[in-house]
Specification:
elongated, mainly alpha
């Protein structure tokens, strides 16, 4: 990636990434719940993948709004 981008374009890209991560997290949480009774291994995999997207979302949120990220209890 050699293109130089301004701060507005960078913010737009981060916001798109946040939206994508949020949607994927929703999908994986739903999949985990749906598979919970019928396929525990697949449900666990969806849950773990969801945790990864949750971490990505937390980092992107912190980049956009520093200090607004709530620390886990």
């Amino acid at each position: 990636m050699t293109d130089v981008v301004d701060s507005d374009e960078l913010l737009r890209r981060i916001q798109r990434a946040r939206a994508c991560a949020r949607e994927e997290l929703r999908t994986l949480r739903s999949r985990s719940e749906d598979l919970g009774r019928t396929d525990p291994d697949a449900a666990r995999e969806a849950h773990v993948r969801g945790l990864a997207y949750e971490a990505v979302l937390d980092v992107l949120d912190e980049i956009v709004a520093p200090g607004h990220h709530a620390e886990p209890a």
